[in-house]
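Human: I hope this is not a bother. Would you mind checking the protein record under this note? Thank you for your patience.
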Amino acid sequence: MSDPDPDPVLTVTAERHPAGPTLITLSGELDFATVADLHDVIADTQFTAVGVVIDLTGVLYCDSAGITELVTASQQARKAGSPLVLAGLSDNLRRVFGIAGLHAIFSSYPTVDLAVGSL
C-alpha cells in the first residue's frame, strides 16, 4: 500500500468560454507550494475587453500566497482594461475574502454562468 501524496496538488486550466471570456479553472490547493502553476497561467492570459473568469469551485484550500496571486491577476486585468470576476467561492473563501476586505477588489458569483453573464 502506498502512502498518499503529501504534496499539495493544483490543476489550472485556461480555455475560451463559449460566450467569449477566458475561463481559468482551478482545482485543488492554492498555496505557497502550488501558486506558481496559477502564476504561469495568468502570465500567459490575454486580458481583453471580453474579460476573464477565474473559477474557484474546485479549490479546497487557499493561503495568503494564493490570495496574493489573485490580487496580482486583478491588477493586471485592471491595467489592461479587462474585467476579471471570480466564480464558485466556497463559504470558507467568502469568509476569508470578507475578513481581508477583498470583496471591494473582486466581484464574485456562485457559478461560472452567472460570472460570465456579469461581464
The chain has a mean pLDDT of 91. Helices lie at 35-44, 64-80, 91-100, 112-118. DSSP finds four helices and five strands in the chain.
